[in-house]
Amino acid sequence: MDLKLQKIIPQLITVLVVVLVFGFFTYNAQINMENRGIDFGYGFLSQESSFDVQFSLIEYDGSHSYFRAYLVGLLNTILVSVIGIIFATILGVIVGVARLSPNYLINQFAAFYVEFFRNIPLLLQIFFWYFAALRALPLPQDADAMLGVFFLTIKGLYVPAFIWENLNVFLYSIIAAIIAIVVIRIHARKIQETQGKQLPVFWISLGLIFILPLLSFLIGGVSLSFEIPQLKQLATTSFIYEGGLSLPPELIALTLSLALYTATFIAECVRAGIQGVGKGQKEAAASIGLNPNQVLKLVVMPQALRIIIPPTTNQYLNLTKNSSLAAAIAYPDLVLVFAGTALMQTGKAIEIVSITMLTYLSLSISISILMNWYNKKIAIKEK
Amino acid sequence: MFKYLKQLTSLVAMVAVLFTFTTETMAAKKSKTLKNTQKKGFVRCGVSQGLPGFSNADAAGNWTGIDVDVCRAVAAAVLGDANKVKFTPLSAKERFTALTSGEIDILSRNTTWTLSRDADIGLTFVGVNFYDGQGFMVRKSSGITSTSQFKDGISACTNIGTTTELNMRDFFNSKGISYEPVAFEKADEVVAAYDAGRCDTYTTDKSGLAAQRTKMSNPDDHIVLPETVSKEPLGPVVRQGDSVWEDIVRWSLNAMIEAEEYGITSANADSMKTSDNPAVKRLVGAEGELGAAFGLDNEWSLRIIKQVGNYGESYKRNIADTGILPDRGPNELWTKGGILYVPPAR
């Protein structure tokens, strides 16, 4: 009885303190807001926002609601995070492996890259890529076309836009190819387990993913043409490109700096993971006749991934949260659009900051759940 | 004895009620912000992160500008020393939160007075110290001389969280021009991006354009277009709910403008005590009991004029002599063709 009480009392006190602190702040905020005549409420979300945003994935202008502006910001945050995570992962894995390369030049270069980029504050790197690189880029009228169709200028990267016909047929063909590959893999595994024969699954898959979409072009009525950006004059010395797709320099600078910065940490995770697998494992695998490719795929990587995934999850979370530094260089992310402009125009500080915090929390938790699921999948399964 | 207990209690209660009532009104007279300011010994003033002519810090950290002078005037009135001000540089985005949360007591940061800001978010605008309007700056080499030459696809750099962002949309919408807004958090970044060629035009209040032009790598390469697309009355702001403090800030500004109207300057203020004009004598504290109304002594306005100067002196020192806007335009006294007109201090 006494022991039970001893366990419960500290917990009760903790809960009480938390409730009191929370209550104190809520009460205080309420009193202060009342004194200054500020209303609390989320009704403003449906009001017309009356400000425009530079770059949006969904249709938006000032006649839409604040909620729509919130979605614009959220999607832009997700966009830059996803692109950043993809690039950071690719670069991180390459550099991580390069650090273990027996080639002196390669591993020293990789080490230099890691030490250089991870030791400079991210905000400075963002400023560097934006302002320094911006000044180095040509004006639209001076830009040379890359491959004849890409134009990298101070006002953004202009790329040709795809103009699809019967896009849905093309997408169906890709889905069909993926389903076929999954079925073949399961079948191949069965054959290997029962008859010991190995099918060239990789080559079959590669063929399928190319041939099926190709067929959709030949007999499915799918066609693809490109809209190439054209130079347009606005004034004597002021030009832009019209047509095609334009990626604002803010997005490019932000993605670049986030990816380059986070990749250094991922590279270290990868290196740690690979070095964490015992040498004996590789030797044992080789001794039972696996080729180097199989050693890596079947023995080293499954074990290394277990070490790599958890710290890499942290880096993904960091990258997502760091994307809020976008506000410094005018990339319209959640913080700039919603916690910036919308907050200023409505004055609803507590509401907007709370929504923004909740949103980042949800984003981070989603990434965590996804990565934890993957981690569990590759973890040792005790039989 | 017990017979009168009831009456006695009610008497005590009544006295108590009366007493609390009087202390209440006394406390209201001596506003909380005023009391805190006097206790701290400095005025907490929110300014811009660097806008020449309005609020700008030099290399030694000394703040100058007409917005800065409003805070200095309040410090002179309340604390007797115009230098007892603590300046907090704020971005457009942070400014209102800093004021409503009590981090600063006056926001004097080229802030536009609008209905929604005044009524909705717990702020009170006390007056106008600069009548402004939004304009556009372009590169001279572009050949653009009027906003009517703007074409679809133009990119415009500006600050977030300002009325500029809203006016810009109204302007381009009414002209039916599609545009790319590029909005930064800090003014310095807007200037850097525009200067680098990221945007075709830079839009903000015309005074701001004139001031920021001086920061460009080559100011002569840029021109401010003649059109004014909005009304931007800029003025100091206080928190809602402290009407005495509000009055002090309002009348500190008014005193500077009225002093100019009556020709009282920092140089001649003392000698004006013997003036024949009662309005002048009131302003220099030689007549009337004006300060008592907000719990200050009678020489509050004299100190403002002596230490900070009148509005004209402040304008000349900060805006005209620095070459930002030599012409006072609407910011001239009503007696000289401008629209500066303040209620009489009496």
Largest two-chain interface: A-B, 45 and 51 residues
Based on CA atoms alone, the radius of gyration of chain B comes out at 24 Å
Radius of gyration of chain A: 27 Å
Structural class of chain A: mainly alpha
The level 1 CATH classification of the domain at 66-121 and 253-378 in chain A is: Mainly Alpha
N→C terminal distance of chain A: 40 Å
Percent strand of chain A:
5-15%
Under CATH, the topology of the domain at 66-121 and 253-378 in chain A is which? MetI-like fold
Low-confidence stretches of chain A: none
Number of helices of chain B: 12
Total DSSP E strands of chain A: 7
**Oligomeric state, counting identical vs distinct chains:** heterodimer
State the order of secondary-structure elements of chain A, H for helix, E for strand.
HHHHEEEHHEEEEHHHHH
Helix content of chain A: 55-70%
Order of helices and strands of chain B: HHEEEHEHEHEEEEHEHEHEEEHHHH
Please tell me about this protein's structure:
The complex is a heterodimer of chains A (about 375) and B (about 350). Chain A has about 375 residues and is mainly alpha-helical. Among the domains of chain A are: about 40 residues; about 180 residues, MetI-like (MetI-like fold, Orthogonal Bundle), CATH 1.10.3720.10. In chain A, about 65% of the residues lie in helices and about 10% in strands. Chain A contains eleven helices and seven strands. In chain A, a hairpin with a 2-residue loop joins strand 1 and strand 2. The longest helix of chain A has about 35 residues. The model of chain A has no long low-confidence stretch (mean pLDDT about 85). Chain B is of the alpha/beta class. Helices cover about 40% and strands about 15% of the residues of chain B. At the A-B interface, helix 1, helix 4, strand 5, strand 6 and helix 10 of A face helix 4, helix 5, strand 9, helix 6 and strand 10 of B.
